[in-house]
């Protein structure tokens, strides 16, 4: 793509006054970095991804309310983490983090473990313990 052909479409980035760097070919045929405020195809994909993430958050909230999972699942989705990422942050094996997602296991976790989760999620221990959805 040539330097003057780099898309400058309306996007969530443009609305936040953020540009991303892309590479293009200048008039001399050399690669140069160029700022782009958006690209329609990329914007469509970003919106679809955000919709999927919002659906996952809503499903996790519904599952917490129904008593199927612990609040850990909701906050993990809200913070856009997966099991392995969360396990790394709380310094536990993924197996244990998945166990902690079970309501009957969660309610028996000690304060130290719950505080690790609360710190990772950026919430208070009380908010984590008392979260009902």
UniProtKB/TrEMBL annotation:
InterPro entries assigned to the protein according to its UniProt record, in alphabetical order: Cro/C1-type_HTH
Where the record annotates domain HTH cro/C1-type, the positions are: 107-128
Q: What superkingdom does the record give?
A: Bacteria
Q: What is this protein called?
A: HTH cro/C1-type domain-containing protein
Q: What's the source species for this entry?
A: Paenimyroides ummariense
Taxonomic lineage of the native organism? Bacteria, Pseudomonadati, Bacteroidota, Flavobacteriia, Flavobacteriales
